[in-house]
Structures are given as C-alpha cells and as structure tokens.
Amino acid sequence: MNYIGSFFKDIYQKMAGSCDIVDCCFGLRPCHQCIFPCIKKCGYANRTVFYNYDGTESVEPLVDYFKPTNSLATKNLVRGMSLDKAVLKKGLTAVEQIAAVINFAHENELRVRAVGTGSSWSKLTNVRDILMDMTNLDQILKAEPQNEDGSIYHIEVQAGMKLHDLVREIDVKYGMSLPCMGNYAGQTIAGIISTSTHGTGQDYPTMSNFVVEIHMVIARGIQIKVRAAADGEEDEDFESVERRINAAKYGDAPLEIHSTDVFRAVAVGFGSLGAIYSVTLECVPVYNIEETRHYIEMDWPSDKQTGHFETPSELKELASGAGRYFSFFVNPFPRKSWQDADRTVLRSVYFSGERTDETGSCQCDCCMAFQCCVCTGCRGQSACQIVQTDCAATCLQIVANCLPSFIPSFADCGLHQFARDAPYIQKWYNVLTFTNGNLHLKTAEYCIPVEDMDNALKDIVRIMQDYGKLYRAYTLLPIYVRMVKADDLYLSPANRRRPDGKEVDRFCYIEVSFLPGAYGVDEFHRKVEDYMFKHYMARPHWAKNHFLNFNRVDKLYPDLHKWKRVYLLFNSDGTFDNEFTRKVGFEDLRDCECSSEKQQRINCSHRETDQVSETVTQQPSRVNAAHAQDYQNELHTECLHNHHCTSNVSTVDAEVISSQPMKSAGDFLPSLTAENSSPRPANCRQHCLHHVNRTDG
User: Fold this and answer.
1) Using one digit for the tens of pLDDT, what is the confidence trace for 330-378?
2) Where are the domains of the chain?
3) Which fold has domain 140-285?
4) 104 and 118 in contact (C-beta within 8 Å)?
5) Regarding the domain delimited by 2-133, which CATH topology (the fold level of the hierarchy) does it fall under?
6) What is the homologous superfamily of the domain 289-548 according to CATH?
7) What was the pLDDT predicted at 411?
8) How many CB atoms sit inside 10 A of residue 143's CB?
9) Which residue from 254, 330, 408, 622 could staple onto 223, CB 3.0 to 4.6 Å apart?
10) Cβ count within 10 A of residue 363
C-alpha cells in the first residue's frame, strides 16, 4: 500500500511541477510572463539566461553561467580560464570549483554572483560577468549529535539545497527539524540565511539565527569557516581576522574564524561578502503542531481621519506570546459584519499553533500522498499545490479585472479556504508551509516593532483603499501578519537596535502580496514603503520587493558600520558587487575607503594638513574650501553616517589632479601604484572619475 501511495505521490509532484507547460499553452497572462516558462529554457548563442522565480528579472552574464557540481571537475570551468594540467588531472571538488572561479575573477577584475532559485527581487541576483548557479549543490554533508540524548544536532548542508527538500530529508534520516520555517519553502538554504528570512514562530528570531557555521569563499578565492565564539571560547577580534585573511593565499586550507563580530555580519550578507558553499544548522527533534484556524472580525472606524483602530483582544493575547506559531490574514476591504449589519469590519482568519505529541491524521505514505485531494498537507484548501499554479492565478486576475466590484468577495472566499472548524494536527513543516514555489506571487514585507502593529495595519489598509480608488489597482490577496523575536545580526530587519536608539524585543512583519500579472505592483509597493519608512522607520524584507537606497539603509541599521568592515575585507576587490550593491549604496562604502586612502597620500605630500585647505582656497572655481576642511576633520567611519562622502572624494581628486598631470586613473588611485599591486575594481575607478568630472564641471 505504501508503494502505491508513493507512486501516485511522484505522479502528483510531477504534475504539480508541470504548471510551466500549462502556462505555456494557456497564454492568458496579461504581461510577458505568459511566455516565461518557454523563455526561461532559451539562451542566446548557446548562452544561458537566468531568471528569478517569477521571470520579472533576468541575468545575462557576459563571461559565463557556471554550475558547480559534486563531481570532480577535470576541465576548465568558465570561458577564458586556463587551470594547470596537474590540477585538472587531480580534479576539483565542489568548493574548489567555487574558489577557482572566484580567484579567476579576482585576477581578471570580473564580477561573480552566487544564486539559487532566484526567489527574490531588487536585483539581488544581477551580475555582469559570471553567474554561479548553486542548485546542483544539494546534499547533506554531515550530521553530528551535540549532546548525549541526541536532542540537538548540527547538520551541515550544501548551499543549494531547497528548504522543502531539507526539512523532509532531516526528518526521514535523523528525526530532526528546524525550530520553525516560513510559509514558502522554495528557497535555497543559502538564500534564506543571506536575506534574513523569517519563519512563522514568535518565540524564534529569523532563520539566519539557526546557523552555527558558514563555509564560504571570499575575494581571491580564500576559503573560510565562520562561527560565533562558543561559551568559554576566545572571541577573535576583527583586527586579528583582518590580519589572517590578508595573509591568506588562494589554495590554502579554510581559515577557521571564531568571531561573534564577523559572524553577525556574515549571517546576513546578501551574497555580497562571498559565495556560501555550506551551512551548518542547529536542529531539534521533529515535532507535530496542533493548529487552530478561526474567523475573527475587526471593527473598522468610519471616520477616516480620527477613527481609532485596534486588533481584537483575542489577537492581542495571541500576539503577546500565547500562540507559539501565530499569524493572521486580513481582508483589506471593509465589509458589513455578518453578526451586526451596523458594524463595519475587516474580516480576518488567524492561525495559532502549539507543539503536540498527538499524531492527528494518518501520516503513512499513502495517506500523505492523497491527503486533501493529493496534497501533502498544508494550511487550507487554497494551499493545494494543484490549485497553486500561475494559470489559476491568471484566471482569477482576469475575472477580477472584469468584475472589480467583486474583489472584496473574492478575498473573503480566499479567507474561507483557510478557516477550519477542527484543529489541524500534522508534522510541523506540513502545517507551516503554504507553497513550495509553484505560485509566483510578487510581495513586499515590512518589519516594525510589535507595539506599532495596530496603527501600521490601519495605515496600510487606508493606503490600499485610496490607491485602489485612484488608480483602480487592487490586490486579491489578504494582508499577512507574523511575529518574530529580535536578534543581534547587523543587517537583520529584526535587529533589536532601532534607529532612535531604543531596543525592541519583538517585531511583526506585515506582508502585502499581489498575484502574478497584477498591474502597477512596483508603484504600489513603493508608495507603501515610503509611508512606512516615514512614519514607522519600517525595515523592508531584503529578499522581497523593496526600493532601499544608501540613505535609508544608513538610517535604518545602526550597526551598518560594523557590517561595512567585514564587507570591505571579504569583498576587498569588488568581486561580489552587482546592481544590488550599487542600488543600496554598498559600493559607496568602498568609495569612502578610497577617500581615506587619498587623505593619507595628501597628508604625506603636503606634510601638514593645513596646506590642503590653503591650496583649495586658492582655487575657488575648482573646489569648495569648506568641503576640504570637512574632509580633514572627518573620520573614516563618519563617511558611513552622512552623505558628503561623494563630495569629499571629489574634492580630494580635484586637488590631486590640479597639483600633477594625470595620464590615467592609476596616476591618482593608490590601489594601482607600485606599493599596492592589488587591482581596484573597475567600478571604483569609474566612480572616482565621475565624481571628479562632476566637480570640475
């Protein structure tokens, strides 16, 4: 019987994954995504194009598209590479392949980006030269018990393994699980931790905090293993780490780094600090969850300006910690109450789960294969994987466009699919997961202190109503709200340190999603993000749709200067820079470093810093004397906390150029002089030249 169940389960999973073919034939999506399943298999002149998971962003690497594998590599890995014959004869392991490509990029001033399933936007996967697709690295490398009773395991898994596959494999092989997970299970492990993805569990921080150790390859092909210092273990300071990495060479054994400071930066690195090869996770014994799912109504104020809104006391109690696995959906369209026609309400469904020893429904292979009409267990009928196709979403979107007055009813219908009279008991990952990636939603999410939840939720609903009336652009999906515990990772949205200097113990995430093919999604998300930043200093989820720039990142993350040190060390030559790092201003951090080096050269040339101001003062048409004085007094770390860094670089560049002829960028960039032969990335030279031209012009 179990064999039959497994057979039909395999057939179902293949059918669920065949929605690409259905989409291709259906062709009803009102944008270019209708042909996405076809074009994602295509290339140009035998070159592969990489698409993010919904096809809205593409990457066309100019040098090569490289997929490291667990087989020994005996050929050159990318175009233009020429490895030693003895090395190729011996063969390169997976991590050696990654290191060889990154070292090749360093030697040729190329850019590299490691990617997984592309379950993100905001140009995280974009790269100019070499794209490394890590999805072939999907194995569990080792599992070690950490105590006598085996209640804690450290499991090392390769970066390209999908979360959906990992949770099932560690359950079957070791009887282990993660403390929690999110509702989407289609990401790779490295992608989850690199973007500080959170789960559904308010007793737990983001999933980056489940990491014990990260094995990665940084600039120049240097391998390192980073972990936080354990209790009683010496915590290595940054200066010591910096000396060791600068002394390391390509081909050396991995450096063991036990530094809490460095780990807090690496745990949320966006792929901008290096390429992750493997991650060691702390796992606990597998458990079941008993979850209740109920309708609830929230009174909605009739007065748009002064009306008071708050979530019901039942939800407040659950949000304060009464429900370990707690979240709720809200239909953003106010309706008349079913119980009292005089009340205007927002309809909602909440989920509250606790761990249990009960087994609930039968969990044999046969029943699991056919539960909920051939679904493996999930949160409600609408989470059925056969329903979760882009075809179904497209049909629903078209109907909504034709009948916009029915959109609130459509949203109510969706909520109805999640409600359940009886508790739902299943394995933890079957309870917490909504989708494995079949449905390509476009979503944005904002992290705020939990005490701001009521006001922020009210404001977002107001924005959705006003925006819809003004532009006739509506979402069919409800707002989703979850709680997480604060952490200390430097660029985690749930970092306990707030911009105002206060510390927060718990946060809530408010998610606003759109179906694929919806119109005007980016502009709506931008409007919500601008409002949330202005009124709540909300931190957008890194992996979801956002429009962050350096100014906002600088204001939102008080520990950015600590992350910056590791970024400049691990990505010293700009190998891992891309469109994302440019957009959010991380490359400007390197410009600050350039300006610091230039200051040292000027001090040596003029003997006394006062002469800089005097020289600049004599050339008022070229530069501003006040900027030069600011530059003298400004510490390097202060460049991070204001936006005069560009002006400072421009001022110094102009001074250097005016005092000596320049044949090339190398004449005034210290990184290209004889005393420092390590090449500076091309973008840094271009930035400096651009700043000089802007000042002179």
Assistant:
1) 999 888 888 888 889 999 999 999 999 888 765 555 554 455 544 544 5
2) 2-133, 140-285, 289-548, 564-696
3) 3.30.465
4) no
5) 3.30.43
6) FAD-linked oxidases, C-terminal domain (3.40.462.10)
7) 82
8) 17
9) 254
10) 15
**Model confidence over 583-627: pLDDT tens digits?**
888 887 776 665 555 555 445 444 444 444 444 444 433 334 444
Q: For the whole model, what pTM was predicted?
A: 0.79
Token readout for 573 is 């030559």
Is residue 629 within 8 Å of 683, Cβ to Cβ? no
Query: Using CB atoms within 10 A of its CB, is residue 140 exposed (0-12), middle (13-18) or buried (19+)?
Result: middle
Residues 6 or more apart whose CB falls under 8 angstroms from that of 306 comprise none
Residues near 457 by Cβ (< 8 Å), separated by ≥ 6? 309, 311, 330, 479, 481, 510
Average pLDDT, the chain: 79
DSSP code of residue 297: E
Q: Give me the DSSP letters along 118-178.
A: ----TTTT--SSEEEE-TT---EEEEEE-STT---EEEEEETT-BHHHHHHHHHHHHSEE-
CA 183/CA 178 separation, integer angstroms: 14
**What pLDDT shows up at residue 540?**
97
Query: In the predicted model, what is the mean pLDDT of residues 170-196?
Result: 93
Residue predicted with more confidence, 52 or 562? 562
Chain CA centroid to CA 585, Å:
16
Measured between its terminal Cα atoms, the distance across the chain in Å is 79
